[in-house]
Amino acid sequence: MVRLIAVLLLLSGVASAQPRLGEYPARPVRVLVALAAGGNADINARLISTALSARLSQQFVVENRPSGGGIVAFGELARAAPDGHTLLVGALGSHALNVGLYRSLAVHPLTGVDHITISSHSAIAVAVHPSLGVTTLAEFRAVLLSRPGQFTYGSSGNGTTGHIAGAMLVSLLGVEAVHVPYRGSAAAFTDLAGGRTSFQADTISFLSDHIRAGTVRGIVIATPVRSRMAPEVPTSAEAGLPAYQATTWAPWSATLGTPLPVRQFLYEQIAEVLKLPDVRDRLVAVGNTIPEGMNPEATRAFIGSEIERWVPIVRATGASVD
C-alpha cells in the first residue's frame, strides 16, 4: 500500500508539471504569418492550419502580419501568452536574414521565441521581364553591365528572402541594380509583369505558374538540381554561377516559454498533416519539398545553422534595413 501511494504521488507530480494536452487547444489558435498573403509562407500556413482545424476540432486562424519583414509578427508573438495558442509562420528572411540586416532585434529569431518545426523548403529562382531580351544568366549580366544602375528588381519587402536573394545575385555577378520593396510577392510581380521592374528573385513555388504562362522568363534556379515545376530553368551551376545557392523554408514558432510538450504535440500533428495527400501534394505541386524529423530541437539547430550561413552573405551584399 505504501509503495502504491508513493507511485500515485509520483505520477501526480509528473502530471501537474506537464501541460494537460487533453485540453490543448482550448480555444482558437492564432497563426501569424510574417509575410503577405499569396507567398510560400502563407500557402504553408493556410493549408496546414485548415487541416489542423479539422484534425483538432479547434480553429487555427491565419492572420498576415507582413510589415517589417517579420519584425511586427515577432513582436506580436512575444506579447502573447506562452501556451501554444499563438503561433508564427515565417521564412528564411524573418528567421535568419534579419539577424544580418538589423543592428539589434527586440525579438531574436533564434533565442527570443521557441520553435516547433519546418513544414517545407522552397528553392529561389530568378525571373526577368521578356523586354530584357535575355535567355541566359550570361546575357542577363551583359545587359546589366551595359547600363549600370538603370535596372530594378522587386521583392516582397526590405529584408525579405527575395530582397537578399536579388542583392546576392547582383553582388555575385558584379553588376548594379536598384532594389524596389513591395508589400508582398504578388505586388512586386504585378510591376514585373508590367515591365516596370526588370527582374525578381522569389520562390519557385510563386514564380513557376508565371514562367509556364510565359509572362516572365526564368533564367536560373539557385539549387544544385532543376525543379520539376520549371524544368527548363537551369541550375546556378549550369548557368555558370555555382555559388548562387538560396532556399527558403517555412518555420513554425511559438512564444518563448511555451512548454516543450505543447510544441512537441504541435510538431507531431503538423507531421501527420503533411502526410495527407491534399496537403503534401499541394505543397509539392507548387515546388516545395517536405523535410522529415524536424522536431523542436532539430528546428532550432537548423535555424541556428542558417543564421550562421546567411549573416555573412547579407553583410557581404551591403544590404541593410536600419
From TrEMBL:
Q: Give start-end of the signal peptide.
A: 1-17
Q: Which InterPro entries match?
A: BUG, Bug_dom1
List keywords of the entry alphabetically.
Signal
Alphabetical list of Gene3D superfamilies matching this protein:
Bordetella uptake gene, domain 1 (3.40.190.150), Periplasmic binding protein-like II (3.40.190.10)
PANTHER family with a match to the protein in the record: BLR1237 PROTEIN, TRICARBOXYLATE-BINDING PROTEIN
Q: Which family does it belong to?
A: Belongs to the UPF0065 (bug) family.
- Protein name (Swiss-Prot/TrEMBL): Tripartite tricarboxylate transporter substrate binding protein
Organism (species) = Plastoroseomonas arctica
